[in-house]
Write a structure and sequence with these properties.
Shape: globular
Oligomer: single chain
Strand order of the largest sheet: 1-2-3
Number of helices: 2
Distance between the termini: 32 Å
Strand content: 15-25%
Order of helices and strands: HEEHE
Structural class: alpha+beta
Number of strands: 3
């Protein structure tokens, strides 16, 4: 369990390297990442959203998150799921980002 926590922290660090192009805040602090699940075989499932369904980076931002996580040597596979439930709103931005 401790290894998963360490790996989860490493994954979050990588996710924080991805910034929303319209708002100078990383996608994690912006509240766009809903869940990070690490499976036993070190495959990772990320559930995320965007600030709006018409976001101009809807195609590229999830791929950027995926590529950043794949940079970690311990990761076998990364799946990024884009979801609209719940809808993102400004209250999801972290205290650090405000």
């Amino acid at each position: 369990m401790e290894i998963n926590k360490k790996l989860q922290n490493e994954i979050i660090k990588k996710i924080k390297e991805v910034f929303d192009p319209e708002i100078p805040v990383d996608v994690y602090e912006l509240g766009l990442i809903y869940d990070v699940i690490i499976h036993e075989n070190n495959s990772v499932h990320v559930s995320m959203t965007l600030t709006s369904p018409s976001c101009p980076v809807a195609e590229t931002l999830p791929q950027q998150v995926k590529r950043k996580i794949e940079e970690l040597k311990l990761i076998n596979k990364v799946d990024v799921e884009l979801t609209w439930q719940p809808n993102w709103n400004r209250s999801m931005i972290s205290e650090e980002a405000n």
